[in-house]
Amino acid sequence: MKHSFRVNFTLLLILILTAKLSINAQDISIKIGFRDSLSSKILNENRTILIHLPDEYNEKQSYPVLYRLDGNPELLMETISTTNRLIYGDELIPEMIIVAIENVNRPRDMWPTNTMYYPETETAGAKVFLDFIEKELIPHV
Which residues lie below 8 Å from residue 98, measured CB to CB, with a gap of 6+? Predict the structure, then answer.
């Protein structure tokens, strides 16, 4: 009896772990949004963005846009969860488009100026990154 329980429990555990791995391996477009890329002349590189549209997205309707820095699928999911609670649960904010900007070089993009804590080999590029958001990303979205 104990042996049968252990075997069944082990098989169930393997099934759960396998299902979780297959869910994590799915494309982001199936779960929470889609990937897009933008060739930036300001940053002189290609930037990947993750975009989540409202559940009842209508192309003819205008939506506010939330830009999420340090974008990755996990942080996008966390942002979607938080905004969904504020939209549908608390009814405090309107439905919105969420754009997560994936990092390429976080220190360069986020540091506004060089300091003694910042490596001198890098150039602080927050101003340039903000220019990219304002002049390229926002018009692209």
Answer: 33, 51, 52, 65, 66, 68, 76, 79, 80, 83
Same domain? 81 vs 135: yes
Indicate if 107 and 49 belong to the same structural domain.
yes
pLDDT in tens, 55-64: 888 999 999 9
Buried b (16+ CB within 10 A) or exposed e, 65-84: eeebeebbbeebbebbeebe
Q: Domain with 81 in it: what CATH number?
A: 3.40.50.1820
- Same domain, yes or no, for 53 and 101? yes
Rounded distance, CA 26 to CA 99, Å? 20
Split into its structural domains, the chain has a count of 2
Q: How many CB atoms lie within 10 A of CB 98?
A: 23
Q: How confident is the model at residue 37 (pLDDT cuts 50, 70, 90)?
A: very high
Spell out where 21-120 has E strands: 34-40, 45-52, 65-71, 97-102
Which residues, listed in sequence order, are joined to residue 47 by a DSSP beta bridge?
A: 38
Domain that holds residue 16: 1-28
pTM: 0.71
